[in-house]
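Handout, tutorial session.
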Amino acid sequence: MLEEKAKGNTSSAIKKLMGLQPKTVLVVRADGTEQQVAIEEVQAGDMILVKPGEKIAVDGIVISGSSYVDESMLSGEPVAVLKKENEKVFAGTINQKGSFKFKAVNVGKETMLAHIIKMVQEAQGSKAPVQKLVDKIAGIFVPVVIGIAILTFVLWLILGGENGIVQGLLAAVTVLVIACPCALGLATPTAIMVGVGKGAEKGILIKDAESLELAKKVKAIVLDKTGTITEGRPRVTDIQWLNHDDTARNILLGIEKQSEHPWQRRW
């Protein structure tokens, strides 16, 4: 019961992943009309229009238009990726300023996002080697302890005289309390569930519980993505003028005022 409760608490990570997918999409019909439909009704082959700032609903291939797409939820790379004709787009990623049409290829449970969600769910349900050992021990240990407790009660009942029932109950409960295998049977699965769930919240997908157990042996971690240990938001730290001539400063300022370029924030 506690394991299921822990699973329920940590499944918020899965809900967050599911929240990356929009509820409705704008489908372009063969006659050119646009229709808002629920994500569940989208089928492979449908033409979908994505406007600036919208989330991409399903996996597909760009047919017309181009835009930069934020794929950080997949790659960890904060810099948006340019998407042109015949390039793939994925569910849960976010379109930036442009708009484009793409043909749905993978929908529903076949999308990359759905596979990630499934992986998190499977990891939460998997058992580490230590937990399998604990389950085997508990499977033998618990019935034996209960048997000893019952035997203790029966012996007190037969041999305990007038207070046999009371003494027998106290002795049986004492055996159960002292031999309680809670630390073995409950702590291990609960720790694994919480560990996997917390990892998912931080964007770390743990393939299975065994990987989590083996993590204690890690001696070095190699990171190759901007945004994992840095902010991933470039900014201008210094301005240098050629020959110390800043006469073009106001012209450049006028150009940059209309831009989202990090240079503009420096002014």
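The second record follows below. Compare its token runs with those of the first.
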Amino acid sequence: MNWKKLAAAAMAVFLCAGCSGTPEQVQEHPQGGEEEKHEATTFAMDTIMMFTVYSKDGEEILIDAEQEIRRLEHLLSVTMEDSEIHELNHKAGEKEVHISEETMELLSLGKSIGKETNGCFNIAISPVVKAWGFTEEEKHVPEQEEIDRLLPLADTDDILLDKENGTAFLQKEGMAIDLGGIAKGYTADKVAELLRAEGITSGYFSLGGNLMGIGQKPDGSAWKAAVGNPLDAKDYVGMLEFSDCAVVTSGGYQRYFEEDGKRYHHIIDPATGYPAENELLAVAVVCENATRADALSTALFVMGLDDAAAFWQKHNDFEVIFITNDEVIATEGLRDSFTFEGRNNDFTFRIMERK
């Protein structure tokens, strides 16, 4: 999430998606509508956000979109001292906190997806992540004793939500919520809803790498994203066409540190308190709902290939691209929209079929 690039004639956005890092490149070569093309770049939620829409009122609409992002950030940020999440964490084990409908909705979704993924997605894992230093300047491997002490604080059953009274309560002192694995997806859904309500039928945007396409390009073709090679930041393994959906990627090779010759990445397995270790390098989720795509990209990465594949087999509302050290796997719903281009990098490719 540290580098982006704008080209002049045909815009290309290089980004690291989700909590992760697979570089993606959105390519746009419209054959009409240039006079109605409007672009904007802003910084919010600790990341760069970029927008392209086609409308004669695009400039004003993009101002509305930025204001919506700022509004949600002030509800959901962990670091802003006046945010609802900051107050909720500050009052953990002490008292309930009144929260907005949006915060209640997102906390409920976070808990629900956590249960659905058997805890592989966990909005309460923040104390463990902090112990590793991924939210601090200095990163280090914590003692096992510290991990054992903190893991009980990551039980989402201890997040009590009272929808009738509009309150939330973290039952144990030391608990903390971090919505970094879902908040940008939720914001993308809200921004897309706003853009469509204001008449946008063609556009796309990237919220720190969470891609969302609205409609198609002005020439009627789909948007295209280059799915990056986790082993080479300057390379990609294929092109994905998408429209009216989100594309969110998670991987462990962008945010990491090394200690005693071993690399540790930032995606923590809630079952162990350690960075997830399996054959996956990256997972890209394609889903109409950006909130779900955001959370599932993390959960599937934590699961590992076999369990993630089994999870996909049981659900029909999303598709996935899995990347290992030597293989790229696209689920069958992407057969006609993903073009593999990684042969020169010793990757093999296959389509995962539904049973």
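Points raised in discussion: The helical segments are 58-76, 84-90, 101-116, 126-132, 144-150, 183-197, 290-303, 305-313.
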